[in-house]
Design a protein that fits this description.
Helices cover 52% and strands 0% of the residues. Helix 1 packs across helix 4. The chain is mainly α. It has a single domain, classed as ACP-like (Non-ribosomal Peptide Synthetase Peptidyl Carrier Protein, Chain A). The longest helix is centred in the middle third of the chain and has 15 residues.
Amino acid sequence: MDSLENDLKSLIIEVFSLDELKPDDIDSDAPLFGEGLGLDSIDALELGLALKNRFDIIITAETPEVRTIFSSVAHLADYIRRIQSS
């Protein structure tokens, strides 16, 4: 498993107190919102703050492709890699 994706899964588990889950239980390509993990818009704000604190990146509603970025762990990891490499 990709270490950044694993870190993101651990962060999601921590932020949302999903103590019953392990990182391996979260599919990297599964939707984070709706039918996937079931996160909502308030959760997106919490996750955005956690990402800022952990990875020093800012994702806001004005960020281009924000829906795609937050669509799955894999997309989130790809975005973080792009930001950190630029």
